[in-house]
């Protein structure tokens, strides 16, 4: 049986501009894109397509930096202030 690596839904790429890169490659430098949405190299607006040496850097995930799913752990206390919502609701059953 062959073990396959799971398909990564948010696999991303970043264009690595060569030292003599055109302005088009420099404009997308340090920008992560989904692999499916990445432009073909050389870029359509490249003014030196015959000598283009730009490449892709691949990532398992397009997102970078801290994830929000870890932020909920920072709030570990309940509200200790005065409860201002003292009025009953608008339904008839709230007054019974």
| Strand-residue proportion | 5-15%
Mean pLDDT: 79
Give the helices and strands as they follow along the chain: EHEE
Shape by Cα distribution? elongated
Class by helix and strand content?
mainly beta
- Amino-to-carboxy terminus distance: 66 Å
Indicate the percent of residues in helices: under 10%
Report the strand count.
Answer: 3
The number of helical runs is 1
Strand order of the largest sheet: 2-1-3
Description:
There is one protein chain. The chain has 96 residues and is mainly beta. It has a domain at 9-62. The chain has 1 helix and 3 strands. Strands 2-1-3 form a 3-stranded antiparallel sheet, with no helix packed on it. The protein is elongated.
Tell me the layout of helices and strands.
Blueprint: E1 12-16, H1 23-27, E2 32-34, E3 55-59
Antiparallel strand pairs: 1-2, 1-3
In brief:
The chain is mainly beta. Helix content is 5%, strand content 14%.
What are the main properties of this structure?
3-stranded antiparallel β-sheet, 96 residues, 14% strand, mainly beta, elongated, 3 strands
């Amino acid at each position: 049986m062959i073990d396959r690596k799971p398909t990564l839904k948010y696999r991303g790429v970043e264009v690595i501009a060569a030292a003599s890169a055109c302005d088009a490659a420099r404009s997308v430098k340090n920008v992560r894109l989904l692999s499916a949405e990445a432009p073909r190299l050389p870029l359509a607006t490249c003014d030196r397509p015959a000598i283009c040496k730009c490449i892709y850097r691949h990532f398992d995930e397009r997102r970078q930096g801290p994830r929000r799913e870890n932020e909920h752990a920072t709030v570990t206390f309940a509200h200790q202030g005065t409860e201002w919502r003292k009025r009953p609701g608008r339904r008839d059953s709230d007054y019974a």
